[in-house]
Amino acid sequence: MDRVFQRIRENLAVAGTKSPPPPPPPPSPVPEDPVATFRFRLEQAGGRWLEFATEAAARAAFPDDDGETGVDRADLLIADTGTVVRTYATREESRVSLVPPRTVFLATAATIVAGLPEALWRLAELHRAGPAYTVFVTGPSRTADVEKQLVIPAHGPREVIVALVLE
Amino acid sequence: MNRGGGLTDRIRRAIKDPVLPGNVLRATNTSLKKRDETVAERPDWEDLRERAAKVKDHVLANLDRYLAEFVENARLRGAHVHFAKDAAAARRIITELARRKGATRILKAKSMATEEVELNQAFTARGFTPLETDLGEFIVQLRDEPPSHITAPALHCSAEQIRDLFAREGVTDGRAPTDRRELATWLSLSARAHLRDRLLEADLGITGANFLVAETGTVALIENEGNIRLTVTSTPVTVSLVGIDKLLPKLTDLATMLPLLTRSATGQRMTSYFQLISGALDEHHIVLLDNGRIDALRDPENREILRCIRCGACMNVCPVYRTVGGHAYGWTYPGPIGSLLSPLWRGRGEDHQLPFLSSLCGACTDICPVKIPIHEHLLRMRREAVSAGRRGIPERLAFRIFRYVMQRPGLYRRAARITKRLLPAAARAGLLRRWTDTRAAPQPAPRSFKEMWREDGPRFSKDP
Ligand code: SF4
Residue B241: what are its φ and ψ, rounded to 5°? Predict the structure, then answer.
């Protein structure tokens, strides 16, 4: 490996280098109503939005023992793209939002961030601290490999529901 | 295979193909339209491009530092990091790992790096072939050909061709819907059902990566189908083969790169899935690929080309690519960027002719999300090919003669008169066929500029 770094250094030295590090990305514009923006973008990406008074009510609506539904929770919601962010402890655990035909993410309004920069700022801390596995989910799985025509689903779920728990 | 034969043969074959040019044109038009719609939503698009170019320039200029940081952080988080100097080394590391693990059921996510090192061929030689899990890759694998586009591998195929292919290969029972509008859905869902069991459990998963993050040792993967998530989670061992040009310093740099990449590639604000894997898998091997990249750092001009984030937009917009498709170019990376990367990274004799496959219109430069002045590099590489004597004696001779004649006005006038008279006759006799087979024959103007000036005088200058 040392040989590799040596070769890179030699090649870089030929043409004086050192370009300054770019500044961090600017924050996203904050939407007036983050919940409404998230919902709009989620639906645009083919996802569904539901609201429940309590978590118990949401869980009762989606029993997860039928093999049809994977019930998961959202760590963060990104308003700008309608994206659910979820950090899993293991790769097996992440299958809950991948293998069953339908995924339900339980979420609260407090987890909404404006855009991707805000989500990554929070995740950076986690990933800097040690091993971590994070998945961003935006709507159901899809493909456009046949003549660029959109088909849902591909190999993942056909339905993604974000269930907002109000209390 | 569609990549056989010399460059000219492949181009001729592509243009003469009864369906390929139409397929490519329709698909690239759809991609461009979607791209334009989502790009228009970002008023800060130019700012993003500028920022992305700076991020990449900075990483490339300090690649030793960031690579060391990445290796350290990935290892700290439990990943195994390997280094492959060239394609043969990459093949050896990965097939050796598969052998050690006794892996026979191998899943492969879409990856241009594995195409570049011809990994599947190495596995096939050992008796088992990795299953391509991306629908487009699965289609070209069944067709026994390489992808023809870096983000849409089967873009050159029509739904009817895929229908017949699937029936022949037993993916479907052949009872396709008669309504053409239902065909894409039916084919895609049939492939899902056909592959389902094999995707849920296997021995080894092979992926590429869209980005590596130095500060966190992260492998970042973008996709829509969920096949990459399955490849990563259905197997106890994962290998990611990644070019060292894919490094980023910080996780937050993804906020700059991602919106550019997804919009340019598929016209999406965000793809269905985006995974950040920081050493958290049971067993993750990361193979860092050089294969010409380190040598390309030497020249600051070439270094600029390494900014590329493989979005494929320059292909979609290129009048040459849109006419001949990807296979004609002869290597993993087609289109304008391929015409730069092939001579730079592979450098076979024929690769040096690729920069001449361009109208130099500059559409690639305008669309490139990381602001690579692609057409200027194409021109530079042409110059390099000419000074290295790579263009053959007839072309050199022709330009010698052209220069001689141009410098002598009397001779030029006479030569022009003769050419004008001979051209139609030559075309009729079929002497220009190599040119006119695939292009319209040039028509000489009825009167030369000199004649117009002499005969019409000042009146000519007032013509609209
Ligand atoms: S050169 Fe630019 S436009 Fe072409 S694939 Fe690379 S990033 Fe995209």
Answer: -100, 120
